[in-house]
Structures are given as structure tokens and as C-alpha cells.
Amino acid sequence: MTALIIGGIFIAILVLMYNSLVGKKNQVDNIFASVDTLLKKRFDLIPNLISTVQQYMEHEKSLLNRLTELRAQAMKPNVSDEQKIALDKQMSQALGSIMVAVENYPDLKANENVMHLQRTLTEVEAQISAARRAYNQAVTDYNNAIEMIPTNFMANAMHYRRKELFSIIEQERQNVNVGELFKK
Amino acid sequence: MSSLNQLTDFYYKELEPELKALEKERKVLRSRIIMILSFIAFLTLFFMLFTARKIGMDDTILFIAFGGFAFGGFIYKLLIKDYTQQFKQDVIRPLIKAIDHNLHYNPNHAVAEALFSFSDLFSNKIDRYSGNDHVKGEIDGVSIEFSDVHAEQRHSGSKGKQKYTTIFQGLFIIADFNKNFKGHTTILPDSAENIFGSLIGGWLQSNNFSQNDLIKMDDPQFEKEFVVYGSDQIESRYILTHAMMKRLLDLRHKAKHQIHISFKGSKVFIAIDYRDDLFEPTIFSSLLDYKTAMMYVQTLHMATGIINELKLNHKLWSKK
Fold this sequence. Notes:
The complex is a heterodimer of chains A (184) and B (320). Chain A is mainly α. Chain A has one domain (20-182): de novo design (two linked rop proteins), CATH 1.20.1440. Chain A is built from 7 helices and no strands. Chain A has helices spanning 2-53, 61-75, 81-102, 106-110, 112-147, 151-157, 170-173. With 320 residues, chain B is α+β, with helices and mostly antiparallel strands. Helices cover 50% and strands 22% of the residues of chain B. Chain B contains 9 helices and 9 strands. Chain B has a 9-stranded antiparallel beta sheet, sandwiched between helices. In chain B, strand 8 and strand 9 (267-272) form a beta hairpin. In chain B, helix 2 (16-55) runs antiparallel to helix 3 (59-99) and helix 8 (242-255) packs antiparallel against helix 9. The longest helix of chain B is centred in the first third of the chain and has 41 residues, at 59-99. Chain B is globular, with a radius of gyration of 23 Å. Chains A and B meet through helix 5 of A and helix 7 of B.
């Protein structure tokens, strides 16, 4: 009888551990899907931005080309999650540079369309930044679970591996504040 | 919007004649109160002794003591009523006008109970709701309103006696938020983690069924002070950027009292737990006293300063 009870408790613990690991993994996937959606939202803004600014921005042609290129790469099918993370970083930097360059063109700065794009872009940037932070928290929870006793034994058996974080470097943190540059 | 120094100057310079007149009234009122309340206390004691002699010690004596106390309180309120109204009219109203001309003050109104419940800051059922000193208007194009609020819950004790306990008493502020969002995010003082430490406290937080998902924030200082619940992991972080978390921490330190914050329906709700009725005149200390003056000036300045403090007037986002 005692053995039966102990066996029952043991199985219950295993089930709980298994479920919590699966829950954490799904949370990571779930949030990555949101990150992906937001990144797409930003990609969709790029053609519009480029077509608006390119006639003014003679000196930043290479920057605009780079942006188009990055977008094309990111839109390809079969891009892995790690590649997406890397592309996102470059994209943020390129967009940041363009926004700074806009400051040099008074006509552009006053353009209704550009102003609208800037607002939308700032907003998407902020949402992406929030999604990255949410993703990092979910990955940290997941990584903790697969490395900590006792769930690490179970995770090993399930072939769960560590996942990478979005690196949020200091400069990127300030990306959220790109909007500060556009203050009237 | 005036600075704290300007407001303090305004209080002492511009309001000087009113303050002096009120001060005179206050002194008269004080001696009158002492006299009348002493008389009531004496009368109560007399009746208590008389009853004790006549029928011995029993519940009746307690009843008389309680009755005397309640009567004293009632008389006190009655005595200070005119003085209080005068004070609000002559001091608080001009102070609010000095902060911003677009602010309207009504000493007898409060933030609507429906809005208070809508904020989702307090899950307890509200059985008695009151408040006063309502300020409403627009600062820098951002709508704001705030007032004193006292929300209580009824408990039925032994012998069918009913007792009220305070859920919240203090300043309740509502302002328009400058970002679009759909869900809601609640930020509460982190009592569980303070009492039980991070391990057990963290477990308690994540299993708090009365709230939405626990949202762990990536600012250690903020995490230590607050606990965040929200309907959407990403949206809550969209609202609570690193900069916003820092601003809320600053506000917490400035307020010197616990604060509860929620973001819901395009508004931000802030409840500052003073456990006191604010903007009431002092009877037993001078209105010219610096500490007393700062209590009015600072509190008003902080409440209206929230728009600047949290940068709610920065319209960077697509929200119009």
C-alpha cells in the first residue's frame, strides 16, 4: 500500500514537472510568434518609408539600399529564429541611422507623411522592444527550468536545449527613445 | 504649471490676508472646541460614575462612554464645518487655480465610484464610498482628475454588529495615457516579496488567482518595490518601458506612501495610500506653519505634476 502511494506521488511529480517544462517552452514559442508579427509590421513600413524619403535623400542612397536588402533577406522563407534575431538588430540600427539623417532635411522633417511614418515607427520600435523583453523573460524562465534541479533531469530526457536571448545592448535600449529625437 | 517654489511663495505671499483671517478664526474655534468637548467629557464621566453607583459596573457604562464619544465627534464636526468650508474656498481653490487655470475644483465632489472600481486596483467589494476635494481639468492637453477617496468594506462581527474596514483612503488620480493599449496592467506594492522573501513571495505572487498573469519586470529595483499583473506580457512591457519604471519608482519615493497603479481603458489610475483625509484645515496647529503649508502645496503639486513626471504630455505615439 505504502509503495503504491509513494509510486503515485512520484508519478504526479513527474507529470507536474513535464507539464511545467512544456508550458515554459510553449510560452517562449508563443512570445516569439508575437515578436515575429511585430517585426513583420515594421518590414511593411519600410517600402513606404523608402519611397517617401528617397527623392530627398541623395547622400543616404547606400543606407536605403542596405535597408531594402535587409528587408529582402528577412522576408525570405526558411529564415531561422537565430537569423531573425540577428537581422532585427541590423534593421534597428539602419532605421535609427535613417531617422537621424532625416533631421538634416527640413523639407522632409515637415512632411506630413514622414511625420506619420516616424510616429508609427517609434510605436512599432517600442512594441518590438517590449516583445524582446517579454521574450527574454520567457527564455530565462525556460533556461532556468532546464538547468535547475530537479527539472534538469526531465529536460535532458526530453532533449530540451538552452535558447538564446535577444541581446539588448545599451544602445538598443535607447532605441525606444528614438522618438526623443523627433521632439518638436 | 507653476513650480513647487512658486507655489510656496504664492501660499505665503498672495494668500497671506486670507491665511491671517483664517488663523484668527482658528484660534477662536480652538478654544471653543476645547471648552465644549471638555464639558461633554465631564458630563459623560459624571453619568458613568452616577450609573456605576446606581446599578454597578455593567455594559451600560460602556454604552454611555461610547455615546459620549460619538456625540463629541458629532459636535466637533459640526463646529469645524464653516471653518473648513472657508479654508477650502480661500486657500485650496486659489492654490489649484495658481497651478493651472484650466483646473476646476469642487470641495464636495469626488471621483466617481464607478471609475474607482473600474481601475481594478482593489479587489475587495466596496460597501461604503466617500470622498471630497475633486479637481478636474486639462494640463498640457492631458485630461486629469483627482480627489480624496475613502473606500470601505462591511464586516458583520459578533452579535450582528457591523464594522467597516478601510480598503483605501488617500489620493486617487486618473489621467489620460499617451499610448494605445487594449488589455490592462496592474502594479501593486510588493508586500508578498517583502514579507516572505523572493522565493516564497515569488511563488505566492505567481499563484495569486485573483489577478491576471504575473509579469516579471527586468528592473531589479522596480521588481523589489512592485509586483505587476497584466493581461498581456508584451503590452504590459510596452507600457512599462525602462524609463517609465524609473519614473514610477521616483513617484513612489516622492509620494512617501504606498502607491497602486493601473493602466486600463486608455487611462492611468494612481492610488496613493495616505490613510488620511487630505486638504483639511488644521485646528490645533497654525496654517502658517511651514510643515502644514507644505502638506497642501506639495500634495497638490505632486498630483498635478504626474503628467510631467510620467511624461504623459509627450505625444510621440500614434494615439491622438
